[in-house]
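Subgroup meeting minutes
Present: P.N., E.W., G.H.
Scribe: E.W.

1. P.N. recapped why we're keeping a running log of single-chain structure predictions: easier to compare across weeks, and new members can see raw inputs and outputs side by side.
2. G.H. added today's entry (333 aa).
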Amino acid sequence: MLSRFFFTAQAASPQRATFWHLVSRKPLILYIQGPLKPLVLVHKMARGKRMHILRGPIGCEDHPRYAGKWKRYFSAARRLFPEHEVVFLCNTTASRDAFAHAGLPCVFFNQNSLLDENVYRIIPDVPKEFDAVYNAQMEKVKRHYLAARIQSLALITYRIDSQPGYYRRIRKELGHASWLNFGSGRWEWLPDTQVSYHLNRARVGLILSEAEGANYASVEYLLCGLPVVSTESRGGRSVFFEEEYASIVHPSPEAVAEAVKEMIARRIDPSYIRERTIQKMEAHREVFRALLQRICDAEGGSRNISEEWPSLFFNKLLGWRRLGELEGLLQAA
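Output recorded in log:
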């Protein structure tokens, strides 16, 4: 079935956008997040070209069924596009172990390590106006209602039209909160630097979903020096947590509110939180750099990825772009 899938119209349209970045043109190395259909199109566009695909997860892939799904994809891709090498980047050791058990090439590398610490940073002299801030898309999986007992609350949100019924419900339940995307009265997109500023206005960061991907916001909080209150979760956000400044609680409004109060009372030095987080991030970045170096060495190049890293790196190392743009880059390469 998957073999036929590669040759049907079920592949993503070139007009579809997803997260990807062509890390290197010589050799060709693509870093891409997302589901199967965009990858099908990538293989087709790069047919006949030697290319390495670093596939990052877009959600929680800890369950073994994901390894089975991607094993079927990998087997078909190897047969139909032997010129393409695929490596799976895993946000957790659980997903890494499941993928490895399925015989898939994979590494434990958490995507949150690619957040830019120069964008998300401690901003001195910004007054602490809120006890807690929750930066999350407006979707049911985020469980905003668990913050209902926090009186001094700020929200940064996205995709408010994705689940309109849920948005209307949360807008009512959290009517006491400061909705920071609505400074002009209507929803507006906040650039990363503005998000960083708003995070600095809070004392604690919240992550309330049960299962999702690694959750960029969790490390955005930490880089801004905020301790974190999180519910029990799967997907990879806890990789950068330490008990000193990350409280894992039962998913109830009462438990979340109480944990926020307790975390504020600890008076943890924001610089300490940030420094410890950057140390952990650097270990994962080294895994990523080493993978790039192995690919370059195997392809007979003389590049030094560590030396090139400052010019290669940018926030997340991913951009939300149409897949059609990649086709032009591949043709040029």
